[in-house]
UniProtKB/TrEMBL annotation:
<dbReference type="InterPro" id="IPR029068">
    <property type="entry name" value="Glyas_Bleomycin-R_OHBP_Dase"/>
</dbReference>
<dbReference type="Pfam" id="PF13669">
    <property type="entry name" value="Glyoxalase_4"/>
</dbReference>
<protein>
    <submittedName>
        <fullName>Methylmalonyl-CoA epimerase</fullName>
        <ecNumber>5.1.99.1</ecNumber>
    </submittedName>
</protein>
<keyword id="KW-0479">Metal-binding</keyword>
<feature type="domain" description="VOC">
    <location>
        <begin position="3"/>
        <end position="131"/>
    </location>
</feature>
<dbReference type="InterPro" id="IPR017515">
    <property type="entry name" value="MeMalonyl-CoA_epimerase"/>
</dbReference>
<keyword id="KW-0413">Isomerase</keyword>
<dbReference type="GO" id="GO:0004493">
    <property type="term" value="F:methylmalonyl-CoA epimerase activity"/>
</dbReference>
<dbReference type="InterPro" id="IPR037523">
    <property type="entry name" value="VOC_core"/>
</dbReference>
<comment type="similarity">
    <text>Belongs to the methylmalonyl-CoA epimerase family.</text>
</comment>
<dbReference type="InterPro" id="IPR051785">
    <property type="entry name" value="MMCE/EMCE_epimerase"/>
</dbReference>
Length: 133
C-alpha cells in the first residue's frame, strides 16, 4: 500500500454536506459523480495532499443507506492507493484478511476498487484503490 488515497464519509444529504465541507475547506468539491452499481452519489474534496469522499445513498438498499441506518452519518471507510490491486488482493487474502470482492470493480474517481471486511480489520472498512489507466 502506497498511501491513504481518501477517507470516505457517509452523508444523508450530499448537497447540504457539500456546502458544509466547502465552508470547512474554503473550496468547492472538485468532482461529483454517481456510481450506479453501488447505489451512491459521491463528491470529492481536496485538502492539501488529502482527499475526502462524501457518499450519499441513491436507494434504500445501498451499502451507504444501510450504514447510515445502523450507525448514522460519519466515517465509512479509509481508502489506500495500491500499485497492483490484483496482487494486493491476493497478498491480503493470503494474510487472512476477508476480501469482500476478490475481483476489482470500477469505483468512483476513475479507480479500480476492492474492499476488506471490517471484521478482519478491527472494525474499519478498508478500500483498495488503483488508478484506471
Amino acid at each position: 500500500m502506497n498511501k491513504i488515497e481518501h477517507i470516505g464519509i457517509a452523508v444523508k444529504d450530499l448537497q447540504a454536506s457539500n456546502l458544509l465541507f466547502e465552508k470547512l475547506f474554503g473550496a468547492p468539491a472538485y468532482k461529483e459523480e454517481e456510481v450506479a452499481s453501488e447505489g451512491v452519489k459521491t463528491s470529492f474534496f481536496q485538502n492539501g495532499p488529502n482527499k475526502i469522499e462524501l457518499l450519499e445513498a441513491t436507494n434504500p438498499e445501498s451499502p451507504i443507506a444501510k450504514f447510515i441506518e445502523k450507525k448514522g452519518e460519519g466515517i465509512h471507510h479509509i481508502a489506500f492507493d495500491v500499485t497492483d490491486i490484483v496482487a494486493e488482493i491476493a497478498r491480503l487474502e493470503k494474510e487472512g484478511f476477508v476480501v469482500l470482492n476478490s475481483v476489482p470493480k470500477k469505483g468512483a474517481d476513475n479507480k479500480w476498487v476492492a474492499f476488506l471486511h471490517p471484521k478482519s480489520t478491527n472494525g474499519v472498512l478498508i478500500e483498495l484503490c488503483q488508478e484506471i489507466i
